[in-house]
Design a protein that fits this description.
The complex is a heterodimer.
Chain A (H helix, E strand, L loop, with lengths): L2 H24 L13 E6 L25 E3 L5 E3 L7 E2 L5 E5 L14 H12 L14 E7 L3 E6 L6 H4 L7 H4 L19 E7 L3 E6 L12 E6 L3 H9 L5 E4 L1 H4 L8 E6 L4 E5 L10 H10 L2 H8 L4 E3 L21 H10 L3 E2 L5 E3 L2 E2 L1 E7 L3 H16 L3 E7 L1 H4 L7 E6 L5 H9 L17 H12 L3 H17 L3 E7 L1 E6 L2 E2 L24 E2 L5
Parallel strand pairs in A: 1-10, 1-11, 18-19, 18-20
Antiparallel strand pairs in A: 2-3, 4-5, 5-7, 6-7, 8-9, 9-10, 11-22, 12-22, 13-20, 13-21, 14-21, 15-16, 16-17, 23-24
Chain B lengths: L1 H28 L4 H6 L8 H11 L5 H13 L5 E2 L4 E2 H36 L4 H15 L2 H15 L18 H36 L1 H8 L4 H13 L1 H9 L1 H14 L5 H10 L3 H29 L8
Antiparallel strand pairs in B: 1-2
Helix pairs in contact in B: 1-4, 1-14, 5-6, 5-8, 5-12, 6-8, 7-8, 7-12, 8-10, 8-11, 8-12, 9-10, 11-14, 12-13, 13-14
Classes of the chains: A alpha+beta, B mainly alpha.
Keywords (chain A): Signal, Transport
Family (chain A): Belongs to the bacterial solute-binding protein 5 family.
Protein name (chain A): Solute-binding protein family 5 domain-containing protein
Amino acid sequence: MTARSIRGMAAATLAGTLAITAAACSNPGAGASGPAAKDSAVVGIAYEPETLSPLLGYGKDGNSKIFDGLLAFDRDMKLRPALAVALPTVSADGLTYTYKLRTGVKFSDGTPFTAKDVVFTYRTILDEKTNNASKTELAALKDVRAVGDDTVVFTLDHPYAPFAERTVLGIAPEHVAGKQDVNSGPFTTKPIGTGPYVLADWSKGEKITFKANPAYWGGAPKVKKFTMAIIKDDDVRATRLRSGDLDGAILPPNLAKGFKGDGARKTYEATTYDYRLVTLPTHNEVTGDLAVRRALDVAVDRGAMVDKILEGAGKPAYGPVPTDSEWFTKGTERAHDLAGARKILDDAGWKPGPDGVRVKNGVRATFPLWYLSGDKLRQDHALAYASDAKKAGIEIKTQAGTWEVIEPRMKTDAVLAGGGSPGDPDFDQYLLLKSSLAGDGFNNMGWYDNPVVDKALDAGRTTDDKAARKAAYDTVQRELVKNPGYTFLTHIDHLYVVNDRWDGLSTQVEPHDHGLASGPWWNVEDWTPKDAGK
Amino acid sequence: MARMAGRRALFAVPVLLVVTFGVFAVAAASPFDPVKAYAGTAGLTASQENLDQLRANLGVDRPLVPRWWDWLTSAVTGDLGDSSVMRQPVADVITERIGWSALLAATAFAVAVLLGTALGVLAARRRGGWLDRCVSSAAYTLEAAPAFWLGLLAIWFFALELGVLPAGGLTDTASETVTFGQVASHLVLPALVLGLSQLPWFFLYVRQGVADALDEDPVRGARARGLDERTVLLKHALRSGMLPMLTLIGSRVPELITGALLVESVFSWPGIAAATVQAATSVDFPLLAALTVLATAAVLLGNLLSDLLYGLADPRVGFDG
């Protein structure tokens, strides 16, 4: 073969590829032929759970398909009874929570559910031999005991207002899970619960198949079969949705856009508590300076980030609480104000140096900002933030790394982090801002230390009085304006594209973490197939 | 022949020992933290006390040598330990998955060997002809194309544009039971992609081997004696032209394993490869060690196989290796 013929062939191949690509652009969607049965649904998700055992953390935030908690969240993240007949009665000192249990509920193997199972579940999670990484969430719990078959009493170490929100975690059957190794026994992959669905099959790395539980205490679900296909790659997921293999999927904004105007599918935008922020470590001589922190807080153009990076699917963030939440403190929104930022820095003595970067007492206004490598969204946020800061005279050097690289540097280097959990303002804010948690794992990454905030955080979690709690979290959010420990950038909407074949679809306010339960299928047990005729 | 196999088996024992120790040593030196990997996103809000407890429970704070020794002694008795990342015994992880990987790899291998040989012979027969030029260029292009990219292209073309083949999974996503027909249709694309990614090597070797053989005296002699083209090509040229390819069969095994890694993940194929990646990034010692032993054994067996085949195909080569 001659060099010429190789070149010719390469050119032909390239031309062919281009032609194919061009054809793809002009031919969006090869029809939306959904999978056959009306009473089955197949959705594509990006993350596979490691386990389906609630004892190891599955479904700890509620609406697990296989298990029920004592309580559950409704669409608006309000608590409603599930395995309990009513919300708990709380003692005056806030230390005792009493739950009356629903009677006549059975596990899917036919065994009755009793208070013993509740006690077993909580005690097992708290047991130090149990490898449950979320047990910190139950740190306030001292003891749990059964009173008869239908009453459970929780005793707390200290008053903890959002404790009831923690009791949405699934209840495991003692007669099955209690007889095997809790960390690796068969129950972790072949669970038995009281929930609306039972596990039909879990082909790891491929899919999880659920069958409706005909004896579900809340009524048998209309969607008889529900399958979650695990497809990590965003493009493959979009492709399989388009090919009709999937009925619905979570997609990033740019891919979801391709389904706009598709009559057979609807796009759902779930609002979230999922924020992106920049930590401003107090141990760094630049970010530790109050003037720098305040200047960055107003120099950043959050609106542009929402428009350009999130393609409109999100909101500017001014704190951990999204602006449309009832816990948000009105009036703490900060407008993009570059002149204001410059003035704050001028007044504090940060004078522009010869290269435009400000200097104060020989310290150049420069610091590193780390983001998780491979995370495009975080990279875009980091670059936009650095470019906004530069206009105010602060130089930010963005660097990509894995958590292994980033973690040891968190005390002094800024990090582009994400987080957020709805349910209760305490969940995020305490871990993010409490000074005693500085440097404890990934808690309080910025080593924020503000006595006013500390006091308000304690007040917020120890009282059950809604107005008092609101006042406490108002204090926290106002303090964050005066002394921002983090620059909050955006709250990100999660996008789902789903075939328009059912009624009853909605989305919950979602956490940072996309669990199995997130997405319009949070209540697939309540969906009903749309009428015949199609 | 039996002696060679026996000697190789003996030799495999120290190799496997060294490899498993290497896996433990490399994993212990890696910057990945098994506790963080185990905890996942929950680890981001867990307290240090909780993480320390996990570290002790998982036994990952122990020194390298005793940990390896414990693993080894229980592995010899048949207990492969528990996989922390999969939350189940290692033996279960492997038995659930290895069959599907073996099916995929074997089919792909058959595609690569059979198609590669056939095309190689045809191309060698008329070197410089249109078939030779087309297939050779395609082979060079394929050599450079990552299996991942081929997979996405195949999904786009066959599943999306033509809609004739499923885009992924072991069975239809909505189907609950694993039937032969389902698996067969779902196997086509991944096996074809994996096979095609291996094909160039077989094709190019056979083409070269057969072409060289055609120029050799015995073949020219056979032609001169008036034997028909078919006999010359298949009986004489192919036989000696196949020799280098037999070595290749063994040496392609590692490539096949790494190729399967990417292909399995593109097609959501529930094989062992995805588990390997997870085990490595989560520093899941028991699972990683078991899988490495399997992969090493596959490579050693591949080499043994190619040497045996070589000995059988060419009487001039003995079995003493």
